[in-house]
């Protein structure tokens, strides 16, 4: 059912969805691996889709970790709200700082992203990345996957410490960027 929902959404709006199928469990594990779940108090997920990463985040987070899930598609967001009612939800990744105020969060320890940046115009990429930079605490980590290395230069300009992991066991194989905010 989840795969069918994802495919339908992709066919209607390929620029916003970015893939024909949800991410694999291998990619999901690579995305949540950089998070220190014992100390994380505030985590955001951008572009949650059907909730492949959300499921892992919900299972791994400590009871006092506040998680805000950003998903633009209303039906996908409502589905996630039903599946993971203890998390917080917002519709627009361009509005991270506003959502933080709404939920009483000063800064995020980690922001995980499944957004298809390569499908977005540069202006939208910049707007989202400006929000990510403002929202992350110093020493915080931005984790994002992409199907190419197109974002590497832009992320290197924003973050002092970047590492990459290649995840071949996914349709399509993906790169996981781990970007630490140094200032």
From TrEMBL:
Superkingdom, taxonomy of origin: Bacteria
Pfam families reported for this sequence: Methyltransf_25
GO molecular function: methyltransferase activity
Domain Methyltransferase: from-to ranges: 43-140
Record flagged with keyword Zinc: no
GO term, biological process aspect, one: methylation
CDD domains xrefs: AdoMet_MTases (cd02440)
Keywords per UniProt: Methyltransferase, Transferase
Record carries keyword Signal: no
Protein name: Phospholipid N-methyltransferase
Organism the protein comes from: Aneurinibacillus migulanus
């Amino acid at each position: 059912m989840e795969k069918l929902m994802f495919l339908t959404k992709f066919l209607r709006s390929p620029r916003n969805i970015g893939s024909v199928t949800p991410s694999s469990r291998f990619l999901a594990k690579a995305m949540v691996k950089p998070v220190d779940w014992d100390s994380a108090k505030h985590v955001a997920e951008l572009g949650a889709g059907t909730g492949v990463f959300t499921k892992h985040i919900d299972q791994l987070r400590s009871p006092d970790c506040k998680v805000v899930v950003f998903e633009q598609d209303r039906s996908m967001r409502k589905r996630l709200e039903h599946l993971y009612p203890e998390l917080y939800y917002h519709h627009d990744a361009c509005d991270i700082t506003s959502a933080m105020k709404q939920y009483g969060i000063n800064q995020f320890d980690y922001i995980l992203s499944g957004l298809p940046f390569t499908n977005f115009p540069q202006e939208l990429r910049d707007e989202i990345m400006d929000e990510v930079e403002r929202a992350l605490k110093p020493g915080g980590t931005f984790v994002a996957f992409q199907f190419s290395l197109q974002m590497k230069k832009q992320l290197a300009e924003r973050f002092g410490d970047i590492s990459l992991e290649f995840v071949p066991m996914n349709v399509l194989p993906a790169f996981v960027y781990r970007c630490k905010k140094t200032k």
